[in-house]
Amino acid sequence: MLDMITVSATDARKEWSSYVDQVVRERPLCVKRTRDRIWLTNLETMKELLKAYHFTAERYIEPDASVTLSLNEIDLIENAPTEQEARLRMGHTILEYALEYYNNYAFYSHAPNRRSHVPYVFKALISDDADALGEEILCLDGKN
């Protein structure tokens, strides 16, 4: 089935501009180069695909009344005087981690304990808004 919607890399190179227009305005495209297949899509479609992925965190109230958030999807922790500030810090930490992951993608994406981070990394990178990422975190009470 995928072969029916796949174009060769040679054809894609020859008609690059029209294929990019197609990907942006009409539908995603699969390009095949020898054994490799590449899926091309626009950012709006990627955002839609990644809507199913949400950041959640365990919330802990510390003895000093500060709030610690422990992200469930990626092993990240932030502490701040208030939950709102901890969420914002976590949003920035998520985006920093996503950039680090992307810059070292060949390493991280093959690490067994980090492979599952891929959709969350792309969600953060496409969002490109640390404050919005922090606001979207669903916080659940953790067990102290």
Name the descriptors.
single chain; 144 residues; YefM-like fold; 3-stranded mixed beta sheet; 7 helices; 22% strand
Walkthrough of the structure:
15% of the residues are buried. The protein has 144 residues and is α/β, with parallel strands linked by helices. Strand 4 (56-61) and strand 5 (67-71) form a beta hairpin. The longest helix has 21 residues, at 83-103. It is built from 7 helices and 7 strands, in the order E-H-H-E-E-H-E-E-E-H-H-H-H-E.
Layout: helices, strands, pairs:
Elements: E1 6-8, H1 9-14, H2 16-25, E2 29-33, E3 36-40, H3 43-50, E4 56-61, E5 67-71, E6 77-80, H4 83-103, H5 105-108, H6 118-127, H7 130-136, E7 138-141
Parallel strand pairs: 1-2, 4-7
Antiparallel strand pairs: 2-3, 4-5, 5-6
Helix pairs in contact: 3-6, 4-6, 4-7
SS class: alpha/beta
The fold-level CATH name of the largest domain is Double Stranded RNA Binding Domain
Helical fraction equals 40-55%
Q: Shape from CA axes? A: elongated
At a glance:
The protein has helices at residues 9-14, 16-25, 43-50, 83-103, 105-108, 118-127, 130-136; strands spanning 6-8, 29-33, 36-40, 56-61, 67-71, 77-80, 138-141. It is α/β, with parallel strands linked by helices and 144 residues long. The protein folds into two domains: 2-41, YefM-like fold (3-Layer(aba) Sandwich), CATH 3.40.1620; 50-141, 2-Layer Sandwich (Double Stranded RNA Binding Domain), CATH 3.30.160.
